[in-house]
Amino acid sequence: MVTDLVIAAIRAIVMLLLVLNLSAILLWFERKGSALIQDRIGANRASVLGVGARLGLPNLGIVNTLLADPIKMFTKEDFVPDGADRLLHGLAPFLALFPVLVTFAVVPIGDTVTIAGHRFDLVAADFSDAALYVLASIGVGVYGIALGGWASNNRLALLGGIRASAQMISYEIAMGLAIIAVVATYGTLSLQTMVREQGGVWFGWLPRWGVMLQPIAFLLLLIAGMAESKRVPFDLPESESELVAGYYTEYSGGKQAVFMLTDFAEVTLVAMLITTFFFGGWQVPWLYRDGFHLPGGALVPIPYWAVVVLGVIAFWIKTIFFCCLQILIRWTMPRFRYDQLMRLGWKLLVPLGLLNLVATAIVVVMAGS
Amino acid sequence: MPLWLFIFLAALAVLSALGVILQRNAVHCLMALVLTLLDIAVMFIGLGAVTVGFLQAIVYVGAIMVLFLFVIWLLNLQVEDRPPAHLALKLFGSIGAAALVAELCTFVVKAPSTAGLSRLPAGFGSIGSLAESLFTDYLIAFEMTSLLLLVAVIGAIALARRPAPARSESAAAMPEKQIGSL
Question: How far is B38 from chain A (nearest CA, A)?
Answer without folding.
Answer: 9
